[in-house]
């Protein structure tokens, strides 16, 4: 079996001063990365003004057993489209496995299962995603902008969104307070 592509299953962290305010302190769970492009789900910031139970109601689903969790800002692409990063103890229509992360589902059946109390045991709900075209992320990785770290269940499911960026650097042995906004020449 082939190894997963380079960044699949990693967390992509935005470096200070990367120049794109949409990704300030971003933490992106990389779900796919191959020769055709890359797709990740932002897990470092919550969306203001929307929570899970309200989202379920907007979709015509009875919130039932669903907790009133914050919704994550998954990224700037298709900001109205929903995704659920979750543990592998649940699978449904169009669920894909993501090595190092768990699974990703972008269909309403996972939300219905969460509302019914039969969904995955651990999950993050997000609206939108971060996407890169063919070779775009590979090129961005050569510049000062992104840093990749291994994903872990602790970072994904046990660390609050507001603390994921710092905790991810710290788990990699880096004190983020010492990071510079500027690049230099050695």
UniProtKB/TrEMBL annotation:
InterPro entries with a match to the protein in the record: AlgH-like
Top-level taxon in the UniProt lineage: Bacteria
Transmembrane region(s): none
GO cellular component term of the entry, any: cytosol
Family per record: Belongs to the UPF0301 (AlgH) family.
Name of the protein: UPF0301 protein H9L12_04470
